């Protein structure tokens, strides 16, 4: 089996499974972190240790992080929580049409609440047009929402330039950043990035599904999305899960412990596939400076879903568009907004890699593509 769909989800690593097993079998960590007795105290201490370790990796304060169930919950909480708490500061939100559905659908909710959504166009490389961004910033803007790494193309956001524009035009504007596809693949230093809100997902970095993280910069106030017993400093109620917190921490630490080696391997795979696919008249849709972990390619003569199922016969697993949108069988809105021809976009598939993929797998992928072309087009 060759798994090239790591942007959708990743295989849970043994270290995470071991941590979960040890935690669940512990005689001292099953208590409720909110209980006042000894078991509750031990659980609360263990829970905070996970936060401390994660904050060290991400370079922020412990009280700026909140565990959630997923990146989508984090996005909903960050965006809706901020605008409803700070609506006196403005009525407009800036974003792009190439954001993940977790952001776009949340922005629809914001629009229903009376907020005005201003969309910035993107260039052919998927990056926001900075001159347009600068021109639409005014005193009404309260929040800007962007994705650090696009999950379909691997396009990397020019964050420094965007922060610079924000600071020149209106420092009161908050920035929400979707870091689901960048964490573990790009350096993350929340103190230096100058953003106010951010989201992360554990199952994209070899943890388990059901683990997410929300970043809220100290001093920034937002309304909670889930209310109840007031856990996590009243930001997200519900009994804290030490198991899931530790699962996220272990995966995060492993991702950055293997950062350099992972980049070298994935870069080699990406370069090889770009060269081989171009020589076979395939069109690379990911920009040249995209992150190495994502490669979007359009195959001449093959609709995306057809190629996906042909590759599946060889036990090679890829995706067409984002897994969150794939059931609709539509052409990628991300590619169309980048100005890519509809037919070309309709023939595209996304290859997404992890540190566990190998050059041997990349070579097998090319062999499978050659066989598919021979069977169907010759």
Features:
alpha/beta; seven-stranded mixed β-sheet; 13 helices; about 15% strand
Describe how the helices and strands are arranged.
Layout (H helix, E strand, L loop, with lengths): L1 E2 L10 H12 L12 H21 L6 E4 L2 H15 L6 E5 L4 H12 L3 E5 L9 H7 L4 E7 L11 H11 L4 E5 L11 H4 L3 E5 L10 E5 L25 H16 L1 H21 L3 E2 L9 E5 L5 H9 L3 E2 L15 H5 L4 H5 L1 E5 L6 H19 L1
Parallel strand pairs: 1-11, 3-4, 3-5, 5-6, 6-7
Antiparallel strand pairs: 2-8, 7-8, 9-10, 10-12
Number of strands: 12
Estimated structural class? alpha/beta
Strand adjacency order, main sheet: 2-8-7-6-5-3-4
Write down the Rg: 21 Å
Helix content: 40-55%
Indicate the overall shape: globular
| H/E series | EHHEHEHEHEHEHEEHHEEHEHHEH
Number of helices: 13
Q: Report the sheet-strand fraction.
A: 5-15%
Q: Summarize the biggest pleated sheet.
A: 7 strands, mixed
Through-space gap between termini: 26 Å
Q: Please, what is the average pLDDT?
A: 94
Poorly predicted tracts of residues: none
Structure description:
It contains 13 helices and twelve strands. With 378 residues, the protein is of the alpha/beta class. The strands form three sheets. Strands 2-8-7-6-5-3-4 form a seven-stranded mixed beta sheet, with helices on both faces. The chain has a three-stranded antiparallel beta sheet with strand order 9-10-12. Helix 2 runs parallel beside helix 8. It is globular, with a radius of gyration of 21 Å. The relative contact order is 0.16. The mean pLDDT is 94.
